[in-house]
Amino acid sequence: MIRVLLADDQALIRAGLRMIVENADDMEVVGEASDGAEATALAAAASPDVILMDVRMPGVDGLEATRRIRDGRPDGPRVLVLTTFDLDEYVYSALRGGASGFLLKDTLATDLLSAIRVVARGDAVVAPAVTRRLVERHVGTSGPLPRTEADLRALTEREREVLELVARGLSNAEIAGRLFLTEGTVKGHVSRILAKLDLRDRVQAVIFSYECGLVRAGA
């Protein structure tokens, strides 16, 4: 069962989300929070697999709660941000803070459940190509960058090549064609890159690549 925590300041929204989640055979709701501080506490107490996190909540908002929950916890609960506001700065802040995905609240129930399953297994629900656009627009505007070029020393030359192409939004098949490799070989490289750099998924790999200078905005 996928353990889901609901974080939204509106009780009616939480009730609707609970109904959707609990109608799925492979999910259960393990808690509800009405603000970011409560969500942070429940994330530690209830051990959810996925947190559905609203952005705008009183006190500690969803973006700050995401940062607190994900900080230093690569294997901790995955955060799927839900909001009524389709704003690039929210998306970028959420992804940089450690969120695994971003959906609008008018998303269909079936798509929401699919997204929960995707992030529960460690993947992201935002395409790397979309992440690239967001990062190019916002990198350097959200405070000090946490990564430096020194972080790349753990990678082989081939792994650096693959990471750069991932950062440019290419799929495994496209990378395989560009580097004359099999798709399986590329998948293996990507897995090793994520493990070496302690990154959660391809979306985090895109952000890392820009923040450490491997790829430059507009290049």
How far apart the termini lie comes to: 44 Å
Order of helices and strands: EHEHEHEHEHHHHHH
Number of strands: 5
CATH architecture of the largest domain: 3-Layer(aba) Sandwich
**Class computed from helices, strands and strand pairing:** alpha/beta
Strand order of the largest sheet: 2-1-3-4-5
Task: Tell me the overall shape.
Answer: globular
> How much β-strand is present in the residues?
5-15%
Mean model confidence by pLDDT: 87
The number of helical segments is 10
Largest sheet: 5 strands, parallel
- Gyration radius from CA atoms, angstroms: 18 Å
**What is the CATH T-level topology of the largest domain?**
Rossmann fold
> What's the CATH class label of the largest domain?
Alpha Beta
Helix content: 40-55%
Please identify which CATH superfamily of the largest domain we are dealing with: Response regulator
**How many domains comprise the coordinates?**
2
- pLDDT under 50 segments (min length 5)? none
Protein name: DNA-binding response regulator
InterPro entries: CheY-like_superfamily, NreC/VraR/RcsB-like_REC, Sig_transdc_resp-reg_C-effctor, Sig_transdc_resp-reg_receiver, Tscrpt_reg_LuxR_C, WalR-like
GO biological process, one term: regulation of DNA-templated transcription
Keywords: DNA-binding, Phosphoprotein, Transcription, Transcription regulation
List keywords for this structure.
219 residues, alpha/beta, Rossmann fold, Arc Repressor Mutant, subunit A, 10 helices, 13% strand, phosphoprotein, transcription regulation, DNA-binding response regulator
